Amino acid sequence: MRKVDLGNIGLSQELMAGSRLYRGLHIGRIVSQQRDLYRVVTEDGEVRAAVSGRFLFKTGGPCEFPAVGDFVMLDRCDSTSGNAVIHKVLPRKSAFIRKAAGRNRDSQVVAANIDTVFICMSLDNDFNLRRAERYLGIAWESGAIPVMVLTKEDLCDNLTVKLSKLASVAPGVEVIVTSSLTDDGYAPLYQYLGRGRTIAFIGSSGVGKSTLINRLLGSEIIRTGDTRNDGKGRHTTTRRELFVIPNGGVVIDTPGMRELGIERADLSKAFSDIDELASRCRFHDCTHTSEPGCAVLQAVREGLLPEDRLANFMKLEKESRYEDLNSRQIETEKITAMFAGMGGMKNARKFAREKNEKRHGY
After folding, report:
1. Residues ≥6 apart with Cβ < 8 Å to 359
2. Lower Cβ count inside 10 Å, N or C end of the chain?
3. Which positions ≥6 away from 105 have C-beta within 8 Å?
4. 267-357 belongs to which CATH class?
5. Regarding predicted confidence, which is higher, 277 or 184?
């Protein structure tokens, strides 16, 4: 039987060397997940697999469970006598993380080991600089390299203006403009593909992600949906899956990549201009709200930094700060921030106590 070329789908020499530490086990890459079952590609073909009982017992949380794109160690390379068993998830070089659904809101890995993430925005109603900033922060933090992909060029009559605006919020990030009207309208994406490369797409529904993926795959593998009257698309991807690209490499398509939260965003890269300005503030813990000697606020006053960009930075920073806290901790953080001008929570309590004593004549 012909062996599967795992190198084409991302198996590196480093991962191969690491797999040799687990004698008697076989390496494979997860291509899809449905509930607690996985489809895994090994050198002998595809197998169904589930995590071992020991793995389940020792796992510290959802982020440690296998995800699409992970390389794992299994007990067998076929599932003719039942599901293969996953005993180990090998170290990830990148990971997209979001809050899981449910009451406890644990973090979970949406996709792993991605080299390049295409952040898709259409050049019609979906074009939104604030959304681009959010996705860039998430992409940088994941460990993957972000590339902005602008779709539906044929619907845009002010491309130069939009490219200029995007450049102001995406410093150092490659921007690609695509169109579905011509056969070569997506050709610029190919420079990021190739043997061993893994790519993924994020962005709002209706921007043309599924259409682009189908183009790269050479067939209509992923169902596409019509765009609604309000310019928003209908969700068409229903499960997480990894697809092999005929020209080499793989693409990961997952519904979880669509609406990623701000979990672990790297704002220092997404807002590198603000980060550089902040290094010149008089106070190292400057909040960029009212402090004297704030270089960030000075840049806003001088028209060097758009006020709405700073506002979005502050919003995402706050969102990121609250992300891992429970409701009580979030409330404490908000109260502390509210009374920061009074010297913090301790002084605020002292102030409230003295005011109460005066009211009752103590």
Report:
1. none
2. N
3. 99
4. mainly alpha
5. 277
* Banded model confidence at residue 150, pLDDT cuts 50, 70, 90: very high
> Distance between CA 283 and CA 252 in Å, rounded?
44
What is the distance between the alpha carbons of residues 265 and 135, in angstroms, rounded to a whole number? 9
Torsions phi, psi for 307 (to 5 deg): -60, -35
- Segments of 35-81 assigned E as strands: 37-42, 45-51, 71-74
Contacts of 23 (CB under 8 A, 6+ apart): none
How is the chain split into domains, by residue range?
A: 13-91, 111-257, 267-357
Nearest CA to 209 out of 280, 241, 257, 140 is that of 257
- State whether residue 244 is helix, strand or coil: strand
Asked if the 13-91 domain carries CATH number 2.40.50.140, the reply is yes
Q: What share of the chain is helix, strand, coil (3-state, %, to 5)?
A: 35, 20, 45
Tally Cβ neighbours within 10 Å of residue 173.
19
Give this prediction's pTM.
0.73
**Distance of alpha carbon 161 from alpha carbon 177, whole angstroms:** 13
* pLDDT over 60 at 339, yes or no: no
Token pair belonging to 136: 């860039």
Output the CATH code of domain 111-257. Answer: 3.40.50.300
Q: What is the pLDDT of residue 68?
A: 94
The CB density around residue 195, as the number of other CB atoms within 10 Å, is 13
Three-state DSSP class for residue 203: strand
